[in-house]
Structures are given as structure tokens and as C-alpha cells.
Specification:
The protein is α/β, with parallel strands linked by helices. 46% of the residues lie in helices and 18% in strands. The radius of gyration is 51 Å and the shape is elongated. It binds adenosine-5'-diphosphate. Adenosine-5'-diphosphate binds next to helix 8 and helix 10.
Amino acid sequence: MSLVNKLAEERRARLAAERLLELKQAELSAANRKLGRHALALTRQIGEKQAEVANVRTENERVKSDLTVANAKIEVAERRLWHSIQTIQDGFAFFDAESKLIGANTAYLSAFDGLEEVAPGISYMRILQLMTDEGIVDTEALSPEDWRRMMTERWMTPTPGPVVIRMWNDQYIKLIDQRGHGGDVVSLALDITATVRYEAELRAARARAEAANRAKSAFLANMSHEIRTPMNGVVGMAELLTDTALDEEQRLYVNTIRNSGEALLVIINDVLDYSKIEADKLELHPEPFDLERCIHEVAMLMQPTVRDKGLSMVVDYDLFLPTRFVGDPGRIRQVLTNLVGNAVKFTKAGHVLIRVTGVPDAGTGRGAIHVAIEDTGIGIAPEKVGHIFGEFNQVEDERNRQFEGTGLGLAISRRLIEMMDGTVWVESAPGKGSCFGFRISLPMAEGQEPIPSDVMGRLRHVLVVDDLPVNRALLCKQLGQLGVRVTACASGAEALERIGRDVDLVLSDHNMPEMDGLELAEALNARGWGSVPFVLLSSNPGAAQSDPARRLVRAILQKPLPRAELFSRLAAIAGEAGSPLQAPPTVRPDAPEPPAGHARRMRVLAAEDNRTNQLVFRKMVKDLDIDLRFAGNGQEAVELYREFAPDLIFMDISMPRMDGKQATAEIRRLEAGTGRHVPIVALTAHAMTGDSDGILAAGLDHYLTKPLRKPLIHDRIREACPRDARPVEMSGGGAEEDGLVRL
Ligand code: ADP
């Protein structure tokens, strides 16, 4: 090989080596560049991480400081809370779900008087044990075991009720425990010693007040009796004085004495009753009684005032409602007296209607009774109606203030009806009238009087004459229900026109305008209808008795009349009357009465211990032709019953030695088996205050309340006059010849 070639080869090799070197250098710098980029990226990442770390660090610092603040706050709150709990005077404790004490305030712990065991961790049951063992609690009537059992049982309930415990030192602690969601219990121990003492003081004060109230009631009851007795004398004597010759001025004085006396008696009775109700002293005394008779007795009592005022009193007792019930007749009569009395008092013209309806329930043996007293009086304004059953509530207006009263009557009536589980109500239209009523449910009593329907068969056609539509309607209804045909006439003139040959009986009102009942009897007789039995319904039978036309009247019936009595009287008259169709219409004189002077006098016994009352009674009957004897007490009454054989006895109820009820019971015992039954009329001081309890049950037939009223006494005597005695009216008339009955 030439040198040139060798050189060329070397050059080529050098060039190739140079190219390789260049290549490697290029590769190296590329790798260097990549490395540089990577290093850059890494540096950036490190920078970022470093910033993040710095952030987290500051955040951490902040949270740490917040936590410190929060902890400090919690500590403050806890301290405050605990401080507050400590300052509470009442005991406060927490227990966990296992009934272990978590914590308690000083007040709570102080009850245990330094017992070191009572500290957080002690169980509730152990606390109870310590309380009894150490005598911290007074378990009163319970034994320590029973007390702990009672307390533990209570503690275990999900919601323990409050309990009051008595501590050894007479402190009273009320425990109120509240169970939380996790089973923890917060226990509060309130010191209620002051409240308990106060309550005890109040109880003692109340007992003292009640005792004083009872003493007041007893005093009132005694006083009212004491006041009533002399008042009786005052009123009775004043009444007798009105019958003597007086000049006008004297009569005014006497009337004022009598009216004031009577008003005072009403007030005394109201106040007494009200105080009895207030003192819860009033009790009901149920006994069998006749409701219809009771209502008629009230109506009778009002009759003199009704008559004086020219009103009409109507009783509409549902024909199909039994009359005998078991209830307190005295109290029912009192309510009726008040409601009917008000109706009469607040009515100047028109009528007072007592309507009794009801539904007997054979299943329960009770009757739902509904009594309504309707009047055509002054009425009550709608805005006042709601108040009048309240105490001392009187409607204060011009029309009303002309009437006297205590404003207690309706309040007493309401309370009495409520005591009977009944309700009272009123409806009223000013200027038109009022309707007061009550509903009660009473057990039905044995011995209901049957309606004499068979005897009524003899009456086919009755001519009813009454100027008052309400009376006519009532009689039509009552007779119509028995299947009797009724022709109702509004006046005597109409009756004269409408009477026909098929009329079996004329039933006429006494007091009618233009032609009264007795004038109608005369007119009928004059026209040849004298054979048709004529029955007069009168609110003043005394006046009718002494009228010359009396001979034309078959019977005078006091109105209003219980329907059973009306029916039986009409049936009896129909029974004795011959058939008017066959008998010629001629004057038929009344059955001859035994001539006066030949028959014996009626014997009347009055048992009354009070001399003044005896005098009043004697004077009241002085115009009657009767044989009167007095008994000073019940025993004498029984003796005189044997010796004197009275036809009628008036019996005072409160008498020394043997009272009126006992004497009556004795007389009834003597009568047993003899078939005799002497009517006995009780004279009671105040029928409405419970004095009447058992009066009718004791065998008395009727009763009259004091002060005695002459017309009522005369009525009773007249009614009881036997057939073999001569009439009690003296010939020539007595004090009632003027037809007026004085009250
Ligand atoms: P008083 O003793 O005043 O009659 P009551 O309690 O019986 O007391 O009656 C309260 C009041 O109710 C009466 O004063 C009267 O204003 C009114 N009142 C009661 N009944 C009637 C009635 N039938 N008509 C009109 N007002 C009546």
C-alpha cells in the first residue's frame, strides 16, 4: 500500500472518527438538554410542594390556636354552668344510665350532712339506703324498706313522676327527675317547705272558715225559725184585724203590716235556703209523691193572688204521664213555687199555664219530666235572660222594679234542679211573656192512679163553657183523650145557644164576663135544662157556695183540679145522673141537705203548741159552724183523737214531747184495720226548707204553710165536712159573704 493510500485511509478514518465524535457530541448535548428540562421541572415541583407545606403549616397553627380558644371558652362555660348550678338553692344532680352519680351541687350534697360516701360514682339506690339508714328522711307511714321500694320503682320508670319527701327536720323536698336520651337522669330537689306550710295554713284557715260558715248556717236556721214564729203571730193577727171594722187609714196600716210581714218571711226563707246551699248543707230527701198533686198544691197556694189580680191559672198535666214519682217533693214544690210565683208576680193580665209533659220509660222505670211555666207577663229582655239564674240578679228596669224580691229565687231553683241532675231554662219575649221550665228524670213510684175510663163511658157529650181559650183547649184535650165529645163555648150566651138534648153534662167556669157560671146555671134552668147536671169550676168555691144559684149546681170544683180528681168527680156525677134523654127537662133541685140544727157539728182538732198561733187559728175559723178543740202537743192530739173522734185534724209539725209526724204515725196506727182515715193537714213553718221531709210519708194528707191563710183553712174544712155533719157555713154567710178572699 502506498503512502498516499495510507494517508488517504488515515484521513478517512480520522474523518469518520471526527463524524462519530460529532454525533456523540450531538447526542450528549441532546441528553444534556433533556436532563436540564427535567431538572427544571423537578425544581418547580419542589417549589410547589414547599408552598403547600408552608400553607398546611400555617393552617395547622391556626386550627391549633382556634382549638385553644374553644377549649378556653368551654372551660369558661362549664365553670359558669357549674357556678350557676352551685348557686341554685335547690339540689341538682346528674346520674348516668347506670344510676351512678356524675355530679351534684352543694345544696344536693348538703342534705347528706358530710357523708363522704355520697360523691360521684355512688349509685342512686345506695343514696336511698343511706337516707333511711342515717335517718335523713322521714318515711312517715311507710317502713324504710317500703319507702325504698317505692322510691326505686319510681326511679326505674321511663318518666318518673314528681314525689314529695319529708326530711328529718320537717323540710319538704319535691323530687323532679328527668331522664335524657342516653339514659342519663337530671335530678332536681326543690325545697317546698314554705309552700307546704302555707298550704297547711290555708287548709286550717279554710277549715276555720267552713266551721264559721257552718256555725253561721246553724245560727241562721235557728234564727229564722225563731223569727218566723213571732212573725206568724204578726201576720196572722194582721190578717184577722183586716176582718174587723176599720177605717181606711187603719186598714192601710194593717195591710202594710201584713204585706211587709209576708215579704219578710219570703226573704228569710230565701236567705236561709241560700245559706244552706252555700254551706253544702242542703240534702235531697227522695220519697214517693204525687207530682200532679204537688203542682196543684202550688197552684192552690197562688190562687188568692191569682184571683186578686184577675189572672187565670191553668194546669195541663199530660194525660199519659204517671203522676207518682220518687223525688224530694218539698224541693220540687219549692222550685215550682218560685217559678209559678214569679210568673204570677210578673203578670198583670192573662194567664199562667203550668204544663207538665213527659215520657215514662218502662225499661228503666224512670220518667223524663218536663215542666214549663208560661205566663203572659212583662217578659225579659234578651240581653238579661242569660243572667237571671245567677245570684242576686234582678232585671233592673223600670217595669221590673215595681216588683219586690231578693233575686235569689231563681238561683236557688237552678241549684236545686242541678242537685236533681236536671236542667233549667227560660225563653222570653219582652212585653209578651216568659216561659220558665225544668227537666228532671225521676224514678216512677208504685200505685199510679188509673184513669177511670170505664166510668167515663157514661159521659158522651160535655158542654164546656169558659171565656179563656187556654182553659177551653185544656178541658177539650183532657176530656177528648177519654173519648168524650166536647162542645166548647166561649160564653154563657154561646152555651145557651149550643146546648142540645144529647149533652150529658155542663162544665162551666165560674168567673166569666157578662154572664158568670152561676148566672148561666140560672138561665139554663129557666129554659128547662135544669136536669142536665151542671158542674161549676171555680177558683173561689167559697163565694159560689153561698150564692142562691148554688142549688142548681151539682158540684163546685176548685180549679185548677188534678185531672184524676176531675175525672172521678165527673164520672161520679155522670153515674148518679139519670139519662137526660129520657127525663123531661125540668128543674131538678139538688139533693136535700140535712137541715141545720139537727145534724151534729163537724169536729175539728188543731194540734198547736204556740198560744198565739192557737189564737190566730181560733179567730180564723170563728165564722164557721164547727166544734173546735186544741191539743197542746202530739200526745194530747193522739188522746183527743180517741176521745173526740175529729173529722179533720190540723197538725203542727214541730211540737214538744211528740211532734206532728209522730202523732200522725200513731193515729194512723190506731186507725189500721178500722177502715177509718181522718184527713190530717200538716201546718209547717216553711215547707220548702226541708221541714216537709217525710210529712206525707208520715201519713199526713195535706199540708199548709205558715203564716196560715184563712181561705185555705176554710177550704180544707169545707172539703172534709162529712155527710152526717151540718154544713160549716153559718147561715147568713160569714166573713166571705162579700165573695172576696183576703190574703
Ligand atoms: P226575685 O226574688 O227578684 O223574684 P228571682 O231570682 O226569682 O228573684 O228572679 C230574678 C229576676 O228574674 C226577677 O227579679 C225578674 O227580674 C226576673 N224574672 C223572673 N221570673 C220572671 C217572669 N216570669 N217574668 C219576668 N221576669 C222574671
